[in-house]
Amino acid sequence: PTDSVPAAVQECVDKGVKAAIIVTAGFRETGEEGSQLESEVLRIARKGGIRIVGPNCMGHFNTAEDLFSAGPRGIRRGPLALISQSGNFGEYILERGNEKGAAFSKYVSSGNEADLTVEDYLEFFAEDEETKVICAYIEGIKDGRRFFDLARHITKEKPFVVMKVGRTAEAARAVLSHTGSLAGSDAVHDAIFRQCGVIRVEEVDELLDIALALIRQPLPRGKKVGILTAGGGFGAVATDACRRYGLEVPALSE
């Protein structure tokens, strides 16, 4: 039960535990009373030197260490890292990834992020040698400046693909009741992503397809694209798609 979590965290402090995953829901996402309870849990944890994943999350895994507190069966070890502020949605991404042949280095379901946040996990994955591409499902960003600086640094070395929800007022309300996150201005997020080189996607399959392409293919050195096709119509469609996304299709010499 939610109201037993503070005592459980205090017991962890007494035992010298240094990190805890709180799966339990019913905190900030439920309103003022839950928010106060979450603050109490965080106060106890910080006083005792414990770092918290969650609450309202579903755990994490590290395939290199064969350490799993979350995730479906059959996870393959590989270069893709995933952060998800939604536990169930993160599990769905992993399951679709399994179906598509994706292989993962690490995963974390961050939940309400009372202590550790998306920015903390990004900082870790930026330096993680086993991670080559970072993916994230994000409902809200707590520290915009830190996220901006980290993302701008990361994308110079590793692709960063984000599915950011909360484009509409209705979706923003759903996000607030889910993990207690403030979705923020979608136009601002779009601008931040563009400036940082973050790839924003709309759907899970798009997230995974782009991540897999970036893992399997080297990053392009520029914006110029050559198109080889068996039919003129296919070439025209491909050319339109390239131009729509800011790529150049130069005329070939005779």
Automatic annotation (TrEMBL):
Residues 2-59 form the CoA-binding domain. Residues 77-213 form the Succinyl-CoA synthetase-like flavodoxin domain. Keywords: ATP-binding, Ligase, Nucleotide-binding. One of its GO terms (molecular function) is ligase activity. Pfam families: CoA_binding_2, Succ_CoA_lig. SUPFAM superfamilies: NAD(P)-binding Rossmann-fold domains, Succinyl-CoA synthetase domains. This is CoA-binding domain-containing protein. It comes from marine sediment metagenome.
